[in-house]
Amino acid sequence: MHREPVDSSSLNSVGYDAGKRLLEVEFRNGGVYRYLDVPPDEFEALKDADSVGRHLNREIKPFYSVIKVRRAPRQAD
Question: pTM score, two decimals?
Fold first, then answer.
């Protein structure tokens, strides 16, 4: 899925597949997650939000199922 960069301290990029209603989010730590059955207007609201990370935490994470695509790499101790 194509993702576009976002201006965020916690996220690198976001992408959306309208046909499948999938929102894909890449975090700065390398983790990638797909949120299921997300309407197109919610993706637009995410991209337009003053804080993309805050919008994700408040408006998407609590309401949509998620699949982990790629874990963040482990940090060396």
Answer: 0.89
